[in-house]
Design a protein that fits this description.
This protein has no helices and 11 strands. The protein is globular, with a radius of gyration of 13 Å. Helices cover 0% and strands 51% of the residues. The strands form 2 sheets. Strands 2, 4, 5, 6, 9, 10 and 11 form a 7-stranded mixed beta sheet that branches. Strands 1-3-8-7 form a 4-stranded antiparallel beta sheet, with no helix packed on it. The protein starts with a strand and ends with a strand.
């Protein structure tokens, strides 16, 4: 079965950085695009970034463009999200996503 395990969240001050990781299993990782989503406190799920199968096609939400970087390592079945210049509005639970599947999430808190 599909399993997505996120890690790397934490509490940081505004302007700081974090690197999120998501290890995938249960499907052919290299054959699929991946995405990161987030749920701010009291709000719905929103798109953050996506990446194509080979890492060459990336898309970002306007709110994170120029600050976040999505990447992947197909040899390790892992997708990353580098979060730079963090703002308080970036606070939320971050989820790795494949199709309709999501992991358990990792919390990012910016103060």
């Amino acid at each position: 079965h599909v399993q997505l395990v996120e890690s790397g969240g934490g509490s940081v001050q505004a302007g700081g950085s974090l690197r999120l990781s998501c290890v995938a299993s249960g499907f052919n990782f290299a054959e699929h695009g991946m995405a990161w989503m987030r749920r701010p406190p009291g709000q719905g799920l929103e798109f953050v970034a996506s990446i194509g199968r080979f890492g060459g096609a990336t898309n970002y939400a306007d709110s994170v463009k120029g600050r976040f970087i999505i990447s992947r390592d197909n040899t390790k079945n892992t997708v990353f999200l580098q979060l730079n210049s963090l703002k308080t509005d970036d606070t939320g639970m971050y989820y790795c996503s494949f199709g309709t599947e999501r992991g358990q999430g990792t919390q990012v808190t910016v103060s």
